[in-house]
Design a protein that fits this description.
2 copies of one chain form a homodimer. Chain A is α/β, with parallel strands linked by helices and about 350 residues long. Chain A has 3 domains: about 5-45, Orthogonal Bundle (434 Repressor (Amino-terminal Domain)), CATH 1.10.260; about 60-155 and about 295-325, Response regulator (Rossmann fold, 3-Layer(aba) Sandwich); about 160-295, Response regulator (Rossmann fold, 3-Layer(aba) Sandwich). In chain A, about 45% of the residues lie in helices and about 15% in strands. In chain A, the strands form 2 sheets. A 6-stranded parallel beta sheet of chain A has the order 2-1-3-4-5-11, with helices on both faces. In chain A, strands 7-6-8-9-10-12 form a 6-stranded mixed beta sheet, sandwiched between helices. The first copy, chain A, binds a DNA duplex (30 and 30 nucleotides) through helix 2 and helix 4.
Chain lengths: ~350, ~350
DNA sequence: GTGTACTTTGGAAGCGCTTGCAGCTGTGAG
DNA sequence: CTCACAGCTGCAAGCGCTTCCAAAGTACAC
């Protein structure tokens, strides 16, 4: 494998000049730059990543910690992060911690601390106080997406607000028998948002003076199949049925729609369903939802980081609220007319 | 930030001994090891990744190139790869090239060549001859999953064989009016398997002496929503309807089922549907499918790589056929009785 | 022609580790 | 008691770059 020395010899320049020519930093005459680049190309030379990093202290590498690349929100964020990072010439080191807290722990300890990343993006991670301290202790920019990360910069949507908006949408249509499917925190500890969204739901219900019925508060694991199972319980019970369901994610809303169909319920005539996310599948189901641009959040996170890295102006922790968009499709409408108090 | 020197001082040992103690290589007395570890822990010291890599030539880092982490198969593979890699103490550098050929090109040129990965795993990549040569030229182990990669080791399922098996399943049930939904290669160039699966379909049909009807050969982009649109065309047309659909992926099978439901078709009485994948959603839809354990494929790829890296026994390119499992659920049955020649 | 300021270049000192080599110690065999 | 050998340890030479520094070259004004 050719080294920078070989390039220097071939180009008739010093190592130092070649280094400057190839990295674009420092003053190099156009002629020298040209020669260095030609020589490098001819030899098929590329700078050694590790040597550069060691010498310069910069890695051009960002660590991304996600609960699971297999789920919609996370893989969407990763796509946004990846594209933006690659454009900027950065590598993305992926830490998928879907196996649970132990994995998360070892990633933090054994990997992130090894100075190999310039910055880290933590997606929806629910970290302990100690873990946050560890992260902050490496003195690298950190941005959290979709999860609280005290001390670090964060990007988040107004979870409580959009839950309120979604609920109000149903209330305004005339629904009073509204169920809420929330995220199942016990399934995976990396989440706080189920609570936040639930809070918004309850707030809206309270403002409208509508009672929250405990039997209509169900939960699932954020997947279609999990929600499907929960919704079968909710809708198939012998007891009274809600006329609307607010699901804390689009995937759960879709699971609910599928379950409703199994029972012959027509959407939206018999049951209105609203979700949160902006999932690609929403269109197929005519799902009314609140679109959070997950890719956009990932891209923004990278831009924030890079700005911080390049200006070296630490700037401190910022908290950015990412805008969302209400998308009304055909899964919500006025409640069925024949629904009185147990007619 | 503490360096190994600080640890050495604190432990009263030489740098060399500390290095050996912490890396576990070479002979170190239990006492020295103990001291080194204590000192390191006290200082919160971790080895610098780049310095280690530079000095030793080993990176403990594997590059993974995927067409898109957003799709089921790829994110499943990545999960399997990630878990296995993390267990082995390796980092995973993710190259998501969903933006197209240009991105793929720049990743190969600007990133992979920079000696920063010990090995690369290429998932379902359709590379040009030149790109393959580039990859091989870095003299690192490469394994390809789910795509041909001449010259490198590959893991693949018997695409043609399982397509045949799926088709035969339908044929044996008595279907003769069978449609095939294939992958849409034009959408993304990274795929050759649509053709292979289609080949298996055609072979089975030919063996059974059943005609392949061109109007029942449709394609979609491997997603549920894409398949839904295609299936609406297929099933909603005024012309004759197939009694069974073999979709080249579970997501497309699900899209087909959703479209069928729109037309009031009952699965499997009016329409049988079979897919390939083993998607988590299959259960919700009672989907008959051929399960390819994508996570398992990812894990296997890593084991192959690591075995190669650690034995340094290059071994040459191997081609591993990964086993699949036929899963019969409730989306396939005998064709409707009343289907004669246009009754 | 001389001085000043700026651009361009090369030498060389690291960046923080790993590892070959040699010396040193302690053990058991002869 | 001596020798061979094995286990430990430290020295020091890199790994392949970046970048500080000083020297050399260039341009322009005086």
């Amino acid at each position: 494998m050719p080294g920078i020395k070989d390039v220097a010899e071939r180009a008739g320049l010093s190592i130092a000049t070649v280094s400057r020519a190839l990295s674009g930093k420092g003053n190099v005459s156009p002629r020298s730059r040209e020669r260095a680049q030609t020589a490098a190309a001819e030899l098929g030379f590329v700078l050694s990543y590790h040597a550069s990093s060691l010498a310069s202290g910069r890695n051009h590498n960002v660590g991304v910690v996600v609960p699971s690349v297999h789920r919609w929100f996370f893989s969407s964020v990763v796509e946004g992060v990846s594209a933006t990072l690659l454009d900027a010439g950065y590598d993305l080191t992926l830490y998928n911690v879907s196996e649970g807290p132990d994995r998360r722990h070892s990633v933090l300890n054994d990997f992130l601390l090894r100075k190999r990343v310039d910055a880290v993006i933590a997606v929806s991670l629910e970290l302990s106080e100690a873990e946050i301290q560890q992260l902050l202790a490496i003195h690298r920019p950190i941005v959290g997406i979709g999860g609280p990360l005290p001390g670090a910069s964060t990007i988040r949507i107004n979870d409580s607000g959009i839950a309120e908006a979604a609920t109000n949408h149903l209330l305004r249509l005339g629904h009073t028998r509204i169920a809420h499917m929330t995220g199942d925190a016990s399934y995976q500890q990396d989440f706080r948002l189920p609570g936040t969204r639930q809070g918004g739901f309850e707030k809206a219900m309270a403002s409208a003076g509508v009672a929250v019925r405990p039997e209509w508060q169900v939960s699932a694991d954020f997947t279609i199949q999990g929600a499907y199972a929960s919704a079968r319980q909710l809708l198939g019970g012998a007891s009274e049925r809600p006329t609307a369901v607010f699901a804390a994610s689009d995937e759960m809303a879709i699971g609910t729609i599928l379950a409703a169909r199994d029972f012959g319920l027509r959407i939206p005539y018999d049951l209105s369903v609203i979700g949160i996310d902006g999932h690609e599948l929403g269109e197929v189901f005519g799902l009314t939802t609140i679109d959070q641009d997950a890719r956009g959040q990932g891209a923004l996170a990278v831009r924030l980081l890079l700005a911080g890295l390049e200006n070296a102006a630490d700037g401190g922790a910022t908290d950015t609220e990412f805008p969302t968009k209400f998308v009304v499709r055909s899964s919500t409408s006025v409640p069925p007319a024949d629904v009185g108090p147990k007619c």
